[in-house]
Write a structure and sequence with these properties.
The chain is built from 11 helices and 2 strands, in the order αααααβαααβααα.
Length: 275
């Protein structure tokens, strides 16, 4: 009597089996502590309180641009086996650019009116946000669109690495609930962590929450709606070698995540209301 073949052991991994994607994720992770340090120095030394609109945008570009410029310069097409606009690093940046743009444009209004976030940048006058969403009492400085690109890129990539490790583990392979639970935990972690780190005394005169304790405990769940919708979509971007995304699919995915976020934020406002 022949014995059944033994199943191959599960190979848990942190990075994608797609080498193009793995390279992009590793670069984004390497650069993340660099931009975080730059931002921390700006907060400690108060640069953001003295720069005008033009200076703040230049600074924000200095923070966000390396996510695009450095891979473009060092990741050669010959190594990728494809033109630069078909590489993971470019498509990941395209996705995050769309998602962060729409998140700032209409999502900030929910932060202002539902979560009690206050911007008080008296030195900045260039703003861009929704006209029909929110009360319009507060506005989003243009520089926030660029800074958010850096924030969201780091949040997404770190979450992808952890989610992949869990999904490819024995527990993840045997239990369907592990992946969705991990998505919620990662989403809440980054929402809470950003709130905790940003709402500090060094920024109290330019940025704060009216009720920080409720924002940390309850508002972080609201904020996590951004990532609950986006993380499971972003995860599959070029995850499989036999299913790489084109630019149209990448754009559609980012727009879908943005619309789902908009819907969840509005449902929260309708049934839960301001914190």
């Amino acid at each position: 009597m022949k014995s059944k073949p033994t199943a191959a052991p599960v190979q848990a991994r942190w990075f994608s089996e797609n080498p193009d994607k793995a390279w992009g994720e590793k670069f984004f992770l390497i650069y993340s502590p660099i931009w975080i340090l730059q931002t921390a120095m700006a907060v400690v030394f108060g640069y953001g309180k003295t720069m005008g609109d033009f200076g703040s945008i230049i600074y924000s570009l200095f923070v966000a641009a390396p996510f695009v410029v450095v891979p473009f310069l060092i990741y050669k097409e010959a190594k990728a086996g494809k033109p630069w606009y078909k590489t993971y690093w470019f498509k990941a940046n395209l996705y995050i650019a769309i998602f962060s743009l729409l998140g700032n444009y209409y999502g900030s209004e929910y932060f202002f009116d539902v979560l009690g976030m206050v911007y008080n940048y008296s030195n900045l006058h260039w703003t861009f946000d929704a006209s029909l969403v929110g009360t319009g009492v507060q506005h989003t400085p243009v520089m926030m669109y660029l800074l958010t690109h850096a924030y969201f890129m780091t949040y997404h990539v770190t979450a992808m690495v952890v989610l992949r490790r869990l999904r490819t583990s024995r527990l993840g392979q045997s239990s369907a609930w592990v992946f969705p639970v991990a998505i919620f935990v990662a989403a809440y972690f980054w929402s809470w962590m950003e709130t905790f780190v940003m709402a500090n005394p060094a920024m109290a005169d330019t940025f704060y929450y009216k009720d920080l304790n409720r924002m940390l405990a309850i508002g972080s769940i609201t904020y996590s709606c951004f990532f609950i919708t986006s993380f499971p979509i972003f995860y599959w971007l070029d995850e499989r070698l036999d299913d790489t995304w084109g630019l149209i699919r990448t754009t559609a995915a980012a727009l879908s995540a943005s619309m789902l976020t908009f819907f969840l934020l509005d449902l929260w406002t309708k049934y839960i209301g301001p914190i």
